[in-house]
Design a protein that fits this description.
7-stranded antiparallel sheet; DNA binding; 28% strand; alpha+beta; Putative plasmid maintenance toxin/Cell growth inhibitor; SH3 type barrels
Length: 120
């Protein structure tokens, strides 16, 4: 079965394993950062994991808070770990669509990523 290309702002349940060291492991929700056309062309999507922990990351200001009002379903909460950005093949990892984030949230994540790459 061929899965559709993920869209920017969608949240998928993905198992990122295998991982090493301090990389987030085990199944988690991930938010897609890249546009659907790019994801389709490359076969991968840039994604940031969502965690209910992440205290060290929170203290370093590399997270974006996801509350019940941030998604269409209102069921996924935690913090988006922007410093754990990964390219993932959602089809090979048998990802499952969960919900869509509100536009303002994905904009905030992208701004945080830009700040991480090019701090002012």
């Amino acid at each position: 079965m061929v899965m559709r290309a993920p869209k920017k702002g969608e949240i998928w349940y993905i198992d990122p394993d295998p991982t090493k060291g301090k990389e987030l492991r085990s199944p988690h929700y991930f938010i897609v950062i890249t546009d659907e056309l790019l994801n389709k062309a490359l076969g991968t999507a840039l994604c940031c994991p969502i965690s209910t922990g992440g205290n060290a990351a929170r203290s370093q200001s590399v997270t974006v808070t996801l509350d019940g009002n941030s998604t269409q379903s209102g069921k996924i909460t935690g913090v988006i770990l922007c410093h754990q950005l990964r390219a993932l093949d959602l089809e090979e990892r048998q990802a499952k669509f969960a919900t869509k984030a509100e536009d303002y949230l994905i904009d905030e994540v992208i701004m945080k990523l830009v700040d991480l790459i090019d701090p002012q």
